[in-house]
User: Fold this.
Amino acid sequence: MTHRGRSRHPTADSRGAALVAALLAVAAVHAARGETDLALGTYERAAARVREIDRPRRLREVLTAWSDLLAAEGRTDEALVVAREALHAGG
Assistant:
């Protein structure tokens, strides 16, 4: 423990948040390289993980990026489903 009563070891929640941040970065790299299927899969994985750690604002961020890429690829029906979830994600 530190002098402020906090553990020096990361919590499962902070590790989950770090994983989500890493997944978002990886998804962005895939998208920039034109690796759309990899990017979409990574956004999907990030969304699943952030739902587990219950971070509504982060979920909205992930879902918005995922929806934007789907829309850019002309997959508007899928983009709409994801965008609707983002709207209801809170935060």
Q: What stands out?
A: The mean pLDDT is 88.
